């Protein structure tokens, strides 16, 4: 077979060599050099946050100006979060922590959440943003939603970043194939930006490739974003590709296979989902950071929840023990807290012997994002592990699932 097909053999050898070369590039990334490489990119948005905070403080009586500053601060904070996500991914990769974590995902809700974020970014630049979700798609699937989000969010962010004012960005999800077990979906992000320079087209997915597009001086960040996207899509078993012409914009697409969540589909068919009424529900929130505590409390009370706070695990345990069973419908628990951490508090609640000790939902809400952190939360008896900073929509979905008894 090999002798009769030398062309095929050469192609396979070339593909294997290319795969090995890319793997070596990832393995040889020096974290210290990486941080130096990203220094300017980190300092610039940090300067924006500090400067805009001071400006807003000095004009606190000008509501419109304060809101303007807050929008800019939010954009800079999200940029920093994306950079941090990239760095953490590299650290996990070096530590061998690259396993996918599948969970139930509603693709339509997922798509709409991404669209809302991108639409807000586009509005800031006076861009036209259009989103289309193929209604033939069965939305309830099992996948690593955080990884898929990381890929699509990066593509959308790039599209907005590299499209001049008054341009256009399109985001779509289209059903390609479906059977009783899986769906194949193509996500497309298209823009009318400046396009990708010809000399970058063959290396755009390699780590530490800076994204200078067209003849502009628009800077593309750490040089890790698209490389990480490509690696994540490969791990998800999909494909990532693009077309681009200088001056005519770019079109990136991701094709992924998703396993249908048959259990969720069965529940949906038996009892159509209804929005949970949060009114009358009681949450115990354990958080030692006063600002984080205030933010989460406001988000929850905005949805009708009553929130009682505890500044550490010991106080949370005391409040749980002093109140009657089923006083609280949910416990949100930070992990790293003084006096008693969230893991120990969760274990003691589960072992307390109260009638609701084994059934009350406990969710970790922490900056600890590694695989072993999630495992420790589960071993301590928690039902879910949310990684800070938690997007409001993600928090609300998790709370709804907890109150629905779906954790």
From TrEMBL:
Keywords: Kinase, Phosphoprotein, Transferase, Two-component regulatory system. The modification 4-aspartylphosphate is found at residue 334. One of its GO terms (molecular function) is phosphorelay sensor kinase activity. The keyword Nucleotidyltransferase does not apply. InterPro entries: CheY-like_superfamily (IPR011006), HATPase_C_sf (IPR036890), HATPase_dom (IPR003594), His_kinase_dom (IPR005467), HisK_dim/P_dom (IPR003661), HisK_dim/P_sf (IPR036097), Sig_transdc_His_kin-like_C (IPR004358), Sig_transdc_resp-reg_receiver (IPR001789). The keyword Phosphoprotein applies. Residues 282-403 form the Response regulatory domain. It catalyses: ATP + protein L-histidine = ADP + protein N-phospho-L-histidine. Its EC number is 2.7.13.3. It comes from the Bacteria. Gene3D superfamilies: 1.10.287.130, 3.40.50.2300, Histidine kinase-like ATPase, C-terminal domain. Residues 37-260 form the Histidine kinase domain. PANTHER family: TWO-COMPONENT HISTIDINE PROTEIN KINASE. This is histidine kinase.
């Amino acid at each position: 077979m090999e002798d009769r097909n030398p062309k095929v053999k050469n192609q396979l050898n070339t593909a294997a060599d290319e795969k090995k070369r890319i793997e070596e590039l990832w393995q040889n990334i020096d974290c210290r050099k990486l941080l130096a490489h990203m220094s300017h990119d980190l300092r610039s948005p940090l300067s924006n946050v500090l400067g805009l905070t001071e400006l807003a403080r000095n004009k606190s009586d000008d509501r419109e100006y304060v809101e303007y500053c807050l929008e800019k601060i939010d954009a800079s904070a999200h940029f920093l979060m994306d950079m941090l996500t990239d760095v953490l991914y590299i650290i996990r990769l070096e530590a061998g922590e690259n396993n996918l974590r599948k969970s139930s995902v509603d693709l339509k809700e997922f798509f709409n959440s991404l669209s809302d974020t991108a639409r807000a970014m586009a509005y800031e630049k006076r861009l036209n943003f259009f989103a289309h979700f193929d209604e033939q798609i069965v939305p309830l699937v099992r996948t690593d939603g955080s990884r898929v989000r990381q890929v699509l969010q990066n593509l959308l962010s790039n599209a907005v970043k590299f499209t001049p004012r008054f341009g256009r960005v399109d985001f779509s999800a289209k059903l390609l194939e479906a059977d009783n077990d899986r769906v194949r979906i193509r996500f497309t992000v298209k823009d009318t930006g400046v396009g990708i320079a010809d000399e970058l087209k063959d290396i755009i997915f390699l780590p530490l490739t800076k994204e200078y597009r067209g003849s502009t001086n628009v800077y593309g960040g750490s040089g890790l974003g698209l490389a990480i996207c490509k690696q994540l899509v490969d791990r998800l078993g999909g494909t990532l590709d693009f077309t681009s012409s200088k001056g005519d914009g770019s079109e990136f697409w991701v094709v992924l296979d998703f396993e249908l969540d048959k259990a969720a589909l069965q529940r949906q068919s038996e009892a159509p989902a209804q929005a949970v009424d949060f009114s009358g529900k009681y949450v115990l929130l354990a958080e030692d950071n006063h600002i984080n505590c205030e933010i989460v409390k406001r988000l929850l009370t905005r949805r009708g929840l009553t929130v009682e706070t505890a500044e550490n695990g010991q106080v949370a345990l005391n409040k749980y023990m002093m109140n009657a069973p089923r006083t609280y419908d949910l416990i949100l628990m930070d992990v790293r807290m003084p006096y008693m951490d969230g893991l120990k508090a969760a274990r003691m609640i589960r072992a307390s012997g109260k009638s609701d000790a084994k059934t009350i939902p406990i969710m970790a809400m922490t900056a600890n994002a590694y695989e072993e952190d999630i495992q420790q939360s589960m071993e301590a008896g928690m039902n879910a592990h949310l990684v800070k900073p938690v997007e409001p929509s993600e928090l609300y979905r998790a709370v709804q699932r907890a109150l629905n008894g779906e954790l």
